[in-house]
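Much of what follows relies on a compact textual record of a protein's fold. An example makes this concrete, so a full record is given next.
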Amino acid sequence: MSKEKTLINFKKAHSLLAKIIKMTEDGEYCIDIMQQNMAVLGLLKSAHQMLMENHLNTCFKTAMSSKNEKKKKEMTDEILKVTNLFNK
């Protein structure tokens, strides 16, 4: 994962959110607003996936290769918590 790609997704989502706010304030057609909203959700989902992949390939991988069982459990619990929150 590149930090730059994730950041681009966050910046695009930020820009689209500003557009959605303006569209809503201007009373634009609901379907058009929802389509933009879906685009934001897609960008955020993609950014989340990139962050998760990076975390699993770096921090998590390092923790799992250590002898520290407490750290391994903490890292596993963190992944499960984030995954559960994401899937709600």
